[in-house]
């Protein structure tokens, strides 16, 4: 085992290398390019066996990835934002092929307006496609999640592609100390990819992804995929436990931070949860009984684990870094539907939306969220959803709008 | 290049590999081509299909193919072929697959995909030198969705989205020219009505490594409006009128494999299809007919003088 400084992108590339991915279809997009460049460099200089092919788009990239996985080689790929959306048709398609491979998504906001900075609307758009989703908060977790993802996706009860998600810039370009597992130990953990009976061979002709006639076979195959994804909750726990035994790092499907004796909890995914943890520590110092839940696994949704961790709590604040336009935070509605109608569940679940397009969530804001939550718990009234946006920011925008107006009209009103 | 297997019609295989009883329309010119091509390629193939009429050839759990099949989507069949081909190569390199288990990678798409939505994926595959055969059956419209205009629709044809008196106002583009601009290993136009020419070209394609186009004009009784039993005859007329030139691109040169000495007037082809009926009834559209004829004539004039 080797300890070194790696960016989140570097850690993702190491994950692919240690998993011995043999095929890497690629297409550039910020902020994931470093992953592909790193792999390309290793392959070009003989440090890693494998073939990297730059496709003409993410739509083609995902198609090639699924097709190669269906033919029997281990595939790795990476994208972000618009790239994930451009490949969306094929995300649904290759998941339906039950072609397991790992796709790293480096989360970034979506146009319009165009931005390079992160939030989670890209990955939320891929929520229902059949890819499993593992969300990371540290560079170490990124590397380890890639290894776990191969084991999980390729396991015979699951056989589905997996997205490993990390936040653009905050994690993709932050250097952290990362332990690189011993290559032999990592290889032994991941194992060989066995495409079973689905690969294309002259001696064993196969038809994949055929048309179906009527809703009955269609429903059958769709339910099968759903059931396979549901299986992956337990599969993940088992594989993560084995990982822990071998490498000494524990990755439950839902990370619980100081929740045991807590009355209230933040719920977040991604690396901003690290800031929330720091806020929890400070709130605790100030006498608050608060903790944090961070689902690592988002598909399948670890509802049971979340329920058991939240049982008996008085209030929860869900902080979404996405907006489902016309509805609100996606994690919020997922959580409330998991809690609804169950005994002992927190009576107050409050929604906060922030961190969009890389906008920071300050530690004062975590305090404010806790304060709002506390008064909601006391009054028993769930507060309306709240966008984390300050008066100051609004003033800044108004200033920009004034400049834009002056620019457009040449100062003539 | 090795000796050609096909000198006479009798040399063409009489074992028909492709199963019968598919849901394709009676008289489908696309299916006719698949039948012929499959006999020459043999069973060691994997067809990578884009959305279109032929997607319905393989309906769970039945398939008329004896080899393998992968349906992708409308825009990305060549990328699917890239993934399969690369994976097969990797498996061969790693010694995880017998050479005898290797497959010919064949993309199967209609013109809508080939000329339009799938063009970026195709262009990428050509540029990367992918070793595959690309079969485009060109029925000059989006057949599967009811013969709307596609980028392969000929000038003046009625489609379900060009129903006015002038028919489709644009001009059919040349997928052959687009391909050869990318310097592929091979490109050819074929038609089911000329099986010997088709067999020779498919054979040649199998002998070359790299991107290879086989594009087939595919008379479509449903979309073009003619009796299914006339399908072969309509195809012959497309060649005899000079509307569908039979040609190939090999070693950097384009060669016409059939030059009709006395071309029939285009009307002989047009008047047999209801998609061109408005050119003849209620009155003849002399201007449009002359324009269509003139474009064909000038194409051949250029060939004959070069
Ligand atoms: C992204 C997308 N848009 C639209 C369709 C609907 N669609 C299915 S087949 C088809 C027509 C394809 O035309 P062509 O490639 O010419 O093949 P043909 O139907 O003529 O066989 C269309 C538009 C689709 N499957 N995917
Ligand atoms: S619509 Fe035309 S191309 Fe499609 S199956 Fe029918 S005849 Fe063939």
Automatic annotation (TrEMBL), chain A:
Listed InterPro entries: PFOR_II, Pyruvate:ferred/Flavod_OxRd, Pyrv_Fd/Flavodoxin_OxRdtase_N, THDP-binding, Transketo_C/PFOR_II
Annotated Pyruvate flavodoxin/ferredoxin oxidoreductase pyrimidine binding domain residues: 17-229
EC number: 1.2.7.1
Ranges annotated as spanning the membrane: none
Domain Pyruvate:ferredoxin oxidoreductase core: 262-365
GO BP term, pick one: response to oxidative stress
Record keywords: Oxidoreductase, Pyruvate
Gene Ontology molecular functions: pyruvate synthase activity
UniProt enzyme class: oxidoreductase
PANTHER family in alphabetical order: PYRUVATE-FLAVODOXIN OXIDOREDUCTASE-RELATED
Protein name: Pyruvate ferredoxin oxidoreductase, alpha subunit
Protein species of origin: Mariprofundus ferrinatatus
UniProtKB/TrEMBL annotation, chain B:
Class of this enzyme: oxidoreductase
Record-linked Gene3D superfamilies: 3.40.50.970
Keywords (A to Z) from UniProt: Oxidoreductase, Pyruvate
UniProt xrefs under InterPro entries: PorB-like (IPR051479), THDP-binding (IPR029061), TPP_enzyme_TPP-bd (IPR011766)
Domain Thiamine pyrophosphate enzyme TPP-binding stretches: 51-214
Keyword Manganese: no
One of the record's GO molecular function terms: pyruvate synthase activity
The EC number(s) this enzyme carries: 1.2.7.1
A matching Pfam family: TPP_enzyme_C
The keyword Oxidoreductase belongs to this UniProt entry's keyword annotation: yes
Protein name in the entry: Pyruvate ferredoxin oxidoreductase, beta subunit
């Amino acid at each position: 085992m080797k300890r070194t400084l790696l960016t989140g992108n570097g850690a993702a590339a190491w994950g692919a290398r240690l998993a011995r991915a043999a095929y890497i279809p690629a297409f550039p997009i910020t902020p994931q390019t470093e992953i592909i460049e790193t792999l390309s460099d290793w392959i070009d200089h003989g440090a890693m066996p494998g073939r990297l092919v730059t496709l003409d788009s993410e739509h083609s990239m995902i198609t090639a990835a699924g097709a190669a996985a269906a033919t029997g080689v281990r595939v790795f790929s990476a994208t972000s934002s618009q790239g994930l959306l451009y490949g969306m048709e094929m995300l649904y398609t290759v998941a339906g092929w039950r072609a397991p491979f790992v796709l790293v998504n480096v989360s970034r906001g979506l146009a319009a307006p165009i931005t390079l900075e992160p939030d989670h609307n890209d990955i939320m758009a891929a929520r229902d496609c059949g890819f499993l989703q593992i969300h990371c908060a540290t560079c170490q977790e990124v590397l380890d999640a890639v290894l776990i993802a191969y084991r999980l996706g390729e396991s015979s009860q699951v056989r589905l592609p997996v997205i490993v998600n990390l936040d653009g810039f905050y994690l993709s370009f932050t250097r952290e100390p990362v332990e690189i597992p011993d290559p032999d130990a990592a290889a032994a953990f991941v194992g060989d990819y066995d495409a079973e009976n689905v690969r294309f061979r002259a001696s064993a002709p196969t038809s994949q992804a055929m048309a179906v006639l009527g809703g009955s076979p269609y429903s059958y195959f769709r339910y099968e995929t759903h059931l396979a994804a549901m299986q992956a909750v337990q599969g993940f726990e088992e594989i993560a436990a084995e990982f822990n035994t071998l490498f000494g790092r524990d990755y439950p499907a839902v990370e619980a931070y100081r929740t045991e004796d807590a009355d209230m909890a933040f719920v977040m995914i991604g690396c901003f949860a690290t800031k929330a943890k720091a806020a929890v520590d400070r709130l605790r110092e100030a006498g608050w009984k608060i903790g944090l839940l961070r689902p690592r696994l988002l598909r399948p949704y670890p509802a049971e684990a979340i329920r058991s961790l939240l049982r008996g709590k008085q209030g929860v604040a869900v902080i979404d870094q996405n907006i489902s336009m016309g509805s609100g935070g996606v994690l919020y509605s997922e959580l409330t539907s998991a809690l609804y109608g169950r005994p002992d569940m927190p009576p107050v679940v409050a929604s906060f939306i922030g961190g969009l397009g890389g906008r920071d969530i300050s530690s004062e804001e975590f305090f404010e969220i806790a304060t709002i939550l506390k008064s909601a718990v006391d009054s028993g009234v769930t507060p309306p959803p709240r966008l984390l946006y300050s008066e100051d920011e609004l003033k800044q925008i108004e200033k920009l709008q004034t400049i834009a107006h002056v620019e457009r009209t040449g100062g003539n009103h | 290049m090795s000796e050609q297997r096909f000198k006479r019609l009798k040399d063409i295989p009489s074992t028909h590999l492709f199963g019968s009883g598919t849901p394709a329309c009676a008289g489908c010119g696309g299916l006719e081509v698949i039948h012929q091509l499959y006999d020459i390629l043999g069973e060691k193939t994997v067809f990578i299909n884009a959305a279109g009429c032929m997607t319905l050839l393989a309906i769970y759990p039945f398939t008329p193919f004896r080899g393998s099949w992968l349906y992708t989507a409308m825009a990305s069949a060549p990328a699917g072929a890239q993934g399969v081909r690369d994976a097969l190569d990797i498996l061969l390199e790693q010694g995880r697959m017998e050479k005898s288990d290797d497959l010919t990678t064949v993309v199967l798409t209609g013109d809508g995909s080939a000329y339009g939505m799938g063009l970026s994926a195709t262009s990428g595959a050509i540029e990367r030198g992918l070793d595959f055969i690309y079969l485009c059956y060109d029925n000059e419209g989006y057949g599967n969705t009811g013969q709307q205009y596609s980028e392969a629709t000929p000038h003046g044809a009625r489609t379900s989205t060009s129903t006015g008196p002038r028919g489709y106002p644009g001009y059919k583009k040349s997928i052959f020219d687009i391909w050869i601009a990318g310097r592929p290993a091979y490109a050819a136009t074929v038609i089911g009505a000329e099986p010997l020419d088709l067999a020779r070209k498919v054979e040649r394609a199998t002998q070359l490594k790299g991107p290879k186009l086989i594009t087939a004009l595919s008379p479509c009784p449903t979309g073009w409006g003619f009796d299914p039993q006339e399908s072969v005859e309509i195809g012959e007329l497309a060649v005899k009128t000079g509307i569908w030139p039979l040609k190939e691109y090999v070693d950097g040169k384009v060669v016409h494999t059939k030059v009709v000495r006395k071309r029939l007037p285009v009307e002989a082809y047009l008047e047999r299809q209801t998609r061109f009926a408005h050119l003849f009834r209620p009155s003849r559209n002399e201007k449009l007919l002359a324009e269509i004829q003139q474009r064909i004539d000038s194409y051949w004039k250029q060939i004959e003088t070069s």
